[in-house]
């Protein structure tokens, strides 16, 4: 029996909701915009490094490492960043 990560499953479900909702909108762009860099996304959401780290569920040093391009976010973190990019206010909601 395969054991699945509940956080990954939750983020996958949320991603499907966001993508389904977005697919109902009229297509304006031909291609999907790429995920912004972590620092750009953090600035877009108006969060400090420590707040962004809390929302992402990682350490401040991990966020700094992503922003310096020394490491890449995990697949789960990338999915959460897609959700934050689709709804920049989600980060503030998760902090409350």
From TrEMBL:
InterPro entries: Cro/C1-type_HTH (IPR001387), HTH-type_reg/antitoxin (IPR052359), Lambda_DNA-bd_dom_sf (IPR010982). The keyword Transferase does not apply. The keyword Transcription regulation applies. Residues 39-90 form the HTH cro/C1-type domain. Keywords: DNA-binding, Transcription, Transcription regulation. Pfam families: HTH_3 (PF01381). PROSITE patterns: HTH_CROC1 (PS50943). NCBIfam families: PRK10072.1. This is HTH-type transcriptional regulator.
């Amino acid at each position: 029996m395969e054991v699945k990560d509940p956080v990954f499953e939750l983020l996958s479900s949320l991603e499907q909701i966001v993508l389904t909702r977005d697919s109902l909108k009229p297509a304006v762009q031909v291609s999907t915009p790429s995920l912004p860099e972590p620092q750009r996304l953090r600035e877009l959401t108006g969060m400090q490094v420590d707040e962004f780290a809390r929302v992402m569920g990682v350490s401040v040093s991990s966020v700094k490492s992503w922003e310096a391009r020394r490491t890449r976010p995990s697949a789960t973190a990338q999915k959460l960043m897609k959700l934050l990019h689709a709804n920049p206010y989600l980060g503030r909601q998760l902090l409350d």
